[in-house]
Amino acid sequence: GDSVTQMEGPVTLSEEAFLTINCTYTATGYPSLFWYVQYPGEGLQLLLKATKADDKGSNKGFEATYRKETTSFHLEKGSVQVSDSAVYFCALTGAAGNKLTFGGGTRVLVKP
Amino acid sequence: DAGVIQSPRHEVTEMGQEVTLRCKPISGHNSLFWYRQTMMRGLELLIYFNNNVPIDDSGMPEDRFSAKMPNASFSTLKIQPSEPRDSAVYFCASTLTGTDYGYTFGSGTRLTVV
Predict the structure, then answer these.
(1) Residue B83 pLDDT greater than 90, yes or no
(2) pLDDT tens-digit map of A11-21
(3) Partner residue facing B31 (CB), from A89, A98, A104
């Protein structure tokens, strides 16, 4: 079945540092890929998405490129802020349609 | 749009009691999902509905859990009887089938069973 693997956290960074969160997937066909963010005490929010190979999703300074050859969708941000402290989830919708499969989440803590 | 609305935000109940969690999806969305989140198990899909019909309930832990969607604007997740191991945050999410909008999540219900 479909699965998503992302790096375990926590990831601790200083403000203005570069952030990378690795995400790889296993799926049949051509999944759509997503990154969600969960701030403390809140639900998950869609951060960005990509629906086909080589697409780049971007939002709020975050970027991720759909790499079919490496089955990856790594999340990056060039200069993080304290407000980026959250848990980040990689996810996909596969052949089953609109059912999302989530990775385990990566907690990011940005220190001033 | 008010987003996906869940109630209550917090629920504390005694073991053995019945608990009902409620969800109002975004108007026009036709798929609804119930998730459970714990530190140990992460996010787990419990059940999802498409056009008010349950499609996949393989994630429902056991017969103590049941979910209904009587109409397009309302769903419930019921636990009877509740147990301490049911303590978790329960999220509801909705989307429109056939689009790549992704899910919109509610703010969750934090359930504590003592």
Answers:
(1) yes
(2) 999 999 999 99
(3) A98
Q: Note whether B56 contacts A98, CB cutoff 8 Å.
A: no
Three-state DSSP state, B86: helix
| pLDDT value of position B1 | 64
A53 to chain B nearest CA, in Å? 15
Cα nearest neighbour of B36 on chain A? A43
Half-sphere exposure of B6 (CA within 13 A, CB side): 26
Sign (positive or negative) of CA dihedral B31, A47, B6, A8: positive
Closest CA to B22 of B70, B57, B59, B82: B70
- What count of CB pairs under 8 Å joins A to B? 46
Partners of B42 on chain A (C-beta within 8 Å) are: 102, 104-105
DSSP for A37-85 reads EE-TTS-EEEEEEE-STT-EEEETTEEEE-BTTTTB--EEESS--GGG-
Mark yes or no for CB contact A46/B102 under 8 Å.
yes
